[in-house]
Amino acid sequence: MQLETRNLKLTLLPGDGIGPEVMTEVKKVIGFLEDKSSLSFDLHEDDIGGAAYDRYGQPLADQTLDTCRASDAIIIGAVGGSKWDGVDYNLRPEAGLLRLRKELDLFANLRPAIVFDALVDASTLKPEIVKGLDILIVRELTGGVYFGEPRGIEDLGNGEKRGVNTQVYTSSEIQRIGRVAFDLAKKRGNHVTSCEKANVMESGKLWREEITMLHGKDFADVKLDHMYADNCAMQLLRNPSQFDVIVTDNLFGDILSDEAAMLTGSLGMLPSASLGAPGVPGLYEPVHGSAPDIAGQGKANPLATILSFAMALRYSLNEGAAADMIESAVQDVLNAGIRTADIMAEGCTEVSTSAMGDALIAQMDKTLQKAA
Ligand code: IPM
Ligand code: MG
Question: Out of 18, 108, 173, 187, which could bridge 180 as a Cys pair, Cβ 3.0 to 4.6 Å?
Fold first, then answer.
């Protein structure tokens, strides 16, 4: 592998639960690349989520945000856990992640759901339904009901309270996420399915109008379908291979991406990228959560976070060759039957979090030696 020397600034935020364990494996991969290629990294590690709350009294400290802004890419492990159930709602672990997305205006969340051939039996769906599946969910990440105002819980004074959130989208917010989806579709199956609830919500009606307009104006050569989000949830189970790129809002995207992820058999396999305007660092994180129930036991699957790092190499650091190498080593390791508990199958070898990282490194080393 011939790669020129660049000092890539990475901020690592391991977070809570299994976050630190899976991040340790990412650091091994980074160390390997530093050893074996001419890539060099300038690493900053800090806290987010509950860990940041414990250390700084906030789930994302200002100084951490500054470090993130100054980097080329940010890798997150996971946030959250019942340990912080009692903290002020505005200071809960998830608020740190939401603040980071919002402050950097990372409006485009790419969540690929790919079924690896070796894992086709790990899905709860029949192998013939999920084999070869390759869906990309493009989720709007900085608008909608997650951030809409007014919001809050008000006391109506008569023993009754009222919880309010607002679903809101503007034309430009819809168009910029639509543009990302159409551009990505052109590099894949050339098909976009746009999901909303235009039959119930005005924001959905506007969503459909704007996507239709954008399509007619700039992307008429891409196939476009509109689908109600509830139907999309059903179609994902009935016939997932009809989809190529799904573009949808923040809340529907949250739900549909968990569903799509599970089609693949394990949340422990799926990376994501959150991207903003050119020049803004991208944020990369596994789709899975902090899984406090298995934290600290060496059971977590580090592949989703390692694959998130691979996405960072590709999208933010322009190091596609290194990303390819990691991704194909993941395939090879799975083909060799090496599995963490979440994807364990008959006849395979169950390994710990750190043994999975080691197996991946050994595989990359082998590949490099062959190529030399
Ligand atoms: C996700 C998560 C987050 C979200 C939580 C942790 C705030 O579920 O990234 O999908 O709802 O966006
Ligand atoms: Mg989610």
Answer: 108
